[in-house]
Amino acid sequence: MRRLALASILVPAALLAGCGTDTIQGPTAPSIAPSLKQGSQSFAYTTFDVPGATLTAAQGINPRGDVVGFADVGGQRHGFLLRDGEFTTIDYPGAAGTDARGISPDGDIVGGYGLPGEPAVNIHGYRLTKHGEFERVNYPGHTNTIPQRVLPDGTILGCRHDENTMDTMHGIVMARSGNWELEQPASMNNGATPDGRLITGLYTNMMNGRTEGYVFEDGVFTPFIVPGSTFTAAWDMNPGSEIAGVYRDASGVFHGFVRRGDDYTALDVPGATATRAFGINPRGDVVGSYVIAGRTHAFVARRER
Predict the structure, then answer these.
(1) The model's pTM
(2) Looking at the domain assignment, is residue 27 inside a domain?
(3) Among 16, 17, 244, 274, which one is most buried in terms of CB atoms within 10 A?
(4) What is the DSSP code string of the chain?
(5) Does residue 31 sit within a domain?
(6) With contact defined as beta carbons under 8 Å apart, do 113 and 97 qualify?
(7) C-alpha angle 67/170/137, rounded to 5°?
(8) Range of the domain at 106
(9) 265 assigned to some structural domain
């Protein structure tokens, strides 16, 4: 075990109230894509940036409202934790770059890191415990492991792959009872209900080359796409089986979405040319990234009641 040396920055409340995983650029879009009927939910947006960052992307949010993600600062990628208005930098010891993707109700964080001198495709996984200790997370027998979520019981979801991220990539589950993976190639497990019985994620449909979402329950793999979309990626699921993710409309614009049953709601940060949703918590709060003037920033969308 190695203990984390943390750097913290206190963020003024005015910054939080005002203002992937990679930069997304696209044409200017209306607040709701014409191809998607507006759902029954409405959201209020709070936008933020890690101080000094040229890119900030929020990836996960837990029931307490703690947010994790990554930022590019000084030419290097760093993970971050945003808790009670304070940023904490997350860097795996010796890594060339680190991201943070998921956070459990208890505060355990999972993500990936790269090592100096390795190919860019090589990604290693870690768990950062609530006590500040790093643990390596590697799926046995494979080169790369990307932990995406950590459930309340410590189960980790994500994917493993080797020389590429297509046919050698499979969604994985790493639990105390053992590890297992999806048979579906080019898949990634990105979220689940707390008991792990219902899983969501993304995969590449080899018949048409399209990225689609899926749900996996009782051994049944069921693909889905946002109505009218040319690309659908499911990135998280909360205890109520709501799914957050990203879709691309027919004009090539990226939007976030929340799926509740058969009801889809588009998420678009006002003024953004592209919006992506990556995480959702039990209250239905959503985190993600958006692009304005070529810069990627982070947001929290809180469901209005």
Answers:
(1) 0.88
(2) no
(3) 244
(4) -EE---EEEEPPHHHHH----S--------SS-TTS---S--EEEEEE--TT-SEEEEEEE-TT--EEEEEEETTEEEEEEEETTEEEEE--TT-SEE---EE-TT--EEEEEE-TTS-TT--EEEEE-TTSEEEEE--TT-SEEEEEEE-TTS-EEEEEESS-SSTT-EEEEEETTEEEE-SSTTEEEEEE-TTSSEEEEEEEETTTTEEEEEEEETTEEEEE--TT-SEEEEEEE-TT--EEEEEE-TTS-EEEEEEETTEEEEE--TT-SEEEEEEE-TT--EEEEEEETTEEEEEEEEEP-
(5) no
(6) yes
(7) 50
(8) 2-22+41-303
(9) yes
Instruction: Please give the Cα distance from 209 to 213 (Å, whole number).
Output: 13
| pLDDT more than 90, % of the chain | 82
The structure tokens 């048409």 sit at: 208
In the block, residue with structure tokens 């995480």: 279
CA distance 281 to 214: 19
Q: Residue 81 corresponds to which tokens in the numbers above?
A: 């934790």
CB-count burial class (<10 Å; 0-12, 13-18, 19+) for 304: exposed
What's the total number of domains in the chain? 1
Q: What percent of the chain has pLDDT over 70?
A: 87
User: Model confidence over 101-153: pLDDT tens digits?
Assistant: 999 999 999 999 999 999 888 899 999 999 999 999 999 999 999 999 999 99
Residue 283 has pLDDT above 60, yes or no: yes
